[in-house]
């Protein structure tokens, strides 16, 4: 078979709710020279049946149906088996605009120094209606991308990314230690070997809903991103990256020993705590303990009494009392 121009990489785990429109949006692309790799990562719903049905209708789909191994393993598996020099990421709950692939591959053809190009997004809710978000747009140039890293602004929307396969392989693909923020870690590692940016057009409809990974694993995601930034600083300073060979990140309190410097654990808590204040899942579990520790270490108390009230609204009165006691102790 002729080598396709693009290999589309989609991993699915119990994605039946939004899977069909996601697949259809890929198959409807104006640029049609692609293979469509879909890994069903051990779903227990009807995802596998949906994938089989579409594979029977379109020979560009190369399905893999197997046991659960996790997103990082699925992504690396697809990158390893891809036949095209360009990888287009896609998630099972989003929707591509028809012109997405064509515009991105044209950008890469015109900018050989760029190894990754994303796009801006149209944010939608579970019902497909507009979903309001605030914050910076994804950076349009590599220079703006580097500025975004230092300011903690958005970098690239993972399911909107198109990547040169060889560049991703050159840095070892996705790292399993950074589960739930594997994309952020990859962007930071790629920033030292290639250029990254996004096309300022809304070529992906990005879906927000309560059960998505970024909602369910907010604390782990934010902690991993903060540690990834520490590793990025080490590499920029010419020092070895102590996370490079890890299969799992250590507890936050072990970071000083891992990096060989004091104060990094407290720095991670200070970086993560403000990002958890509006998240129900972020204020649950270890996220709440992280927040209290951050305050005991002298963190900013601005707006924290509103967080007490928010915990009450979230149905967490005991945690509201604990946070109020922490604040009262000064």
TrEMBL record:
<dbReference type="InterPro" id="IPR050834">
    <property type="entry name" value="Glycosyltransf_2"/>
</dbReference>
<dbReference type="InterPro" id="IPR001173">
    <property type="entry name" value="Glyco_trans_2-like"/>
</dbReference>
<feature type="domain" description="Glycosyltransferase 2-like">
    <location>
        <begin position="7"/>
        <end position="168"/>
    </location>
</feature>
<dbReference type="GO" id="GO:0016757">
    <property type="term" value="F:glycosyltransferase activity"/>
</dbReference>
<dbReference type="InterPro" id="IPR029044">
    <property type="entry name" value="Nucleotide-diphossugar_trans"/>
</dbReference>
<keyword id="KW-0808">Transferase</keyword>
<keyword id="KW-0328">Glycosyltransferase</keyword>
<dbReference type="Pfam" id="PF00535">
    <property type="entry name" value="Glycos_transf_2"/>
</dbReference>
<comment type="similarity">
    <text>Belongs to the glycosyltransferase 2 family.</text>
</comment>
<protein>
    <submittedName>
        <fullName>Glycosyl transferase</fullName>
    </submittedName>
</protein>
């Amino acid at each position: 078979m002729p080598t396709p121009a693009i290999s589309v990489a989609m991993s699915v785990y119990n994605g039946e709710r939004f899977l069909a429109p996601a697949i259809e949006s890929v198959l409807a692309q104006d640029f049609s020279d692609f293979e469509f790799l879909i890994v069903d990562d051990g779903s227990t719903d009807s995802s596998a049946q949906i994938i089989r049905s579409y594979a029977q209708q379109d020979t560009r789909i190369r399905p893999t149906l197997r046991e659960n191994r996790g997103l990082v393993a699925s992504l690396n598996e697809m990158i390893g088996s891809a036949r095209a020099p360009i990888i287009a990421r896609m998630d099972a709950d989003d929707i591509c605009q028809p012109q997405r692939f064509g515009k991105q591959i044209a950008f890469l053809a015109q900018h050989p120094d760029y190894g990754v190009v994303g796009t801006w997004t149209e944010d939608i809710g579970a019902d497909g209606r507009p979903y309001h978000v605030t914050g910076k747009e994804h950076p349009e140039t590599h220079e703006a991308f580097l500025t975004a890293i230092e300011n903690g602004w958005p970098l690239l929307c993972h399911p909107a990314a198109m990547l040169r396969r060889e560049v991703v392989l050159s840095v070892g693909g996705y790292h399993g230690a950074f589960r739930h923020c594997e994309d952020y870690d990859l962007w930071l590692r790629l920033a030292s070997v290639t250029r990254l940016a996004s096309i300022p057009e809304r070529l992906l409809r990005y879906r927000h809903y309560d059960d998505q990974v970024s909602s369910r694993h907010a604390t782990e995601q934010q902690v991993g991103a903060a540690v990834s930034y520490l590793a990025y600083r080490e590499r920029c300073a010419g020092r070895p990256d102590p996370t490079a060979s890890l299969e799992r990140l250590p507890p936050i309190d072990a970071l000083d020993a891992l990096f060989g410097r004091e104060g990094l654990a407290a720095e991670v808590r200070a970086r993560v705590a403000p990002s958890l204040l509006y998240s129900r899942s972020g204020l649950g579990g270890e996220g709440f303990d992280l927040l209290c520790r951050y305050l005991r270490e002298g963190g900013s108390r601005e707006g924290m009494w509103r967080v007490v009230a928010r915990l009450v609204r979230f149905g967490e009165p005991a945690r509201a009392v604990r946070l109020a006691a922490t604040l009262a102790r000064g």
